[in-house]
């Protein structure tokens, strides 16, 4: 089974554990991330220091997966992007809610 297929199976499995909420994700609820040729899954756990956000991404079906981990406190955000895409994914914490949405990638 390819890395991409494994990520899709994990995403559907995690998503089926909890119902989606309009205001954002619940802890351990998976959210698909698509950055063109790079895609994967993000979820979080609520911990004492903040929301620990874990995003696992891979390029194509055979790319080596990478994991990005960040702890967000209220008002903080993390942006995931690739050099090839104009769009990015923003993961932000608003009080007790975590939002995942498309955003414009920063240009240098």
TrEMBL record:
Keywords: Signal. Residues 1-22 form the signal peptide. It comes from the Bacteria. This is Uncharacterized protein. It comes from Bradyrhizobium ivorense.
């Amino acid at each position: 089974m390819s890395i991409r297929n494994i990520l899709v199976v994990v995403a559907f499995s995690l998503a089926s554990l909890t119902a989606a909420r309009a205001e954002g994700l619940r802890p351990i609820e998976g959210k698909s991330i698509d950055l063109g040729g790079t895609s994967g899954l993000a979820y979080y756990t609520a911990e004492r220091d903040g929301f620990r956000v874990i995003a696992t991404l891979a390029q194509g079906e055979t790319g080596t997966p990478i994991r990005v981990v960040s702890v967000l406190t209220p008002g903080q955000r993390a942006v995931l992007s690739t050099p090839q895409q104009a769009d990015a994914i923003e993961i932000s914490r608003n009080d007790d809610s975590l939002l995942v949405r498309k955003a414009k990638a920063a240009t240098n």
